[in-house]
Design goal:
The chain has 280 residues and is α/β, with parallel strands linked by helices. It has helices spanning 38-46, 74-86, 100-112, 140-147, 161-169, 182-189, 225-238, 257-275, and strands spanning 18-22, 52-53, 58-59, 65-67, 90-94, 116-120, 151-154, 174-175, 197-203, 240-247. Helix 2 (74-86) packs parallel to helix 3 (100-112) and helix 3 (100-112) runs parallel beside helix 4. Bound molecules: manganese (II) ion. Manganese (II) ion is lined by residues 98, 121-123, 203, 205, 217, 248. Manganese (II) ion binds next to loops.
């Protein structure tokens, strides 16, 4: 099945501008399990998307969306990402848990060199190691920080004292939703170097659990739908976003709200990539 039910030329690798890389990796989830089912549920839900976007006035599927076969293997996911970037596509990786992000960021940084990293997440994920594991999902942003210091965080409301100190010490721009100040959020979104290629990682628990209950470590007080979209719009206008991922969806048996919301978010990223596009 292809993302957004594209077919024929609109789903071919050669002709598609977008690529979807399902990567159902789940090794270190610490609370509820089930993120390995994320990619399949996202693609299922995407069959029901309306393909015209009224906000950005564009039908992203008309640019073509190629969907890779799902994999649990790091090497295959990295190869799929490398192939997409080499062919100048805009790839979106579907997790899986958040620890896939440093793997993907590393592949992108090998190609582009210095990059910005912008992450939406309830959790700072800046622990140097968690339960003895440096590659834990709770260390995802820290592992990216090892590669690039140019990072910004949005939606943070679960953080320990060492992470908070790390943020202050390294002057990392962070938007905390308790501030309830979208102007400040947009200012932070504009604070990185606009000349650097940019990777966007969206952990679905950055959104409020009232609209995103299907995630393994939910936290109250998250971003609303239009707050997240406004921040993303600013990002897509200011930076050349070259790759993105959407991680930590844990599909629920009782409700399809989370699956559909996350698949719509992914499709919005495509609409923004076209309509807010900063020149490559
Ligand atoms: Mn998280």
């Amino acid at each position: 099945m292809n993302f957004a039910s594209t077919m024929g030329d609109f789903a071919s690798f050669k002709k598609s501008y977008f690529s979807i890389i399902p990567f159902s990796y789940e090794m270190t989830t610490s609370y509820m399990k089930g993120t390995s089912k994320g990619p399949e549920s996202l693609i299922d839900a995407s069959q029901n998307l309306e393909l015209f976007d009224e906000q950005f006035n564009v039908n992203a599927a008309e640019k073509g969306i190629f969907t890779f076969a799902n994999t649990e293997e790091k090497g295959i996911a990295q190869a799929n990402l490398g192939k997409s970037l080499d062919s100048k596509k805009f790839p979106i990786v579907l997790g899986g848990e958040h620890s896939i992000t440093p793997m993907m960021f590393e592949t992108a940084a090998n190609k582009f060199g210095k990059m910005n990293y912008i992450v939406f997440d309830a959790h700072a994920d800046l622990k140097d190691s968690y339960l003895g594991n440096k590659m834990s999902h709770a260390c995802a942003t820290r592992r990216v920080y090892d590669i690039s210091k140019s990072v910004a965080l949005f939606g943070i409301r679960s953080i320990d004292d060492s992470e908070s100190e790390f943020i202050s010490k390294n002057k990392i721009p962070v938007y905390y939703p308790y501030k309830q100040n979208i102007k400040e959020a947009l200012k932070i979104a504009g604070s990185l170097d606009p000349k650097l290629p940019t990777y966007v990682s969206f952990d679905v628990d950055g959104l409020d659990p009232s609209i995103m209950p299907g995630t393994g470590t939910p936290e109250p007080g998250g971003l609303t739908w239009y707050e997240a979209i406004s921040i993303l719009e600013t990002i897509f206008k200011r930076y050349n976003v070259v790759a993105a991922d959407c991680v930590e969806l844990m599909p629920l048996k009782s409700s399809i709200v989370s699956d559909f919301t996350a698949s719509k978010l992914i499709y919005k990223l495509m609409a923004m990539k076209i309509s807010c596009k900063k020149q490559d």
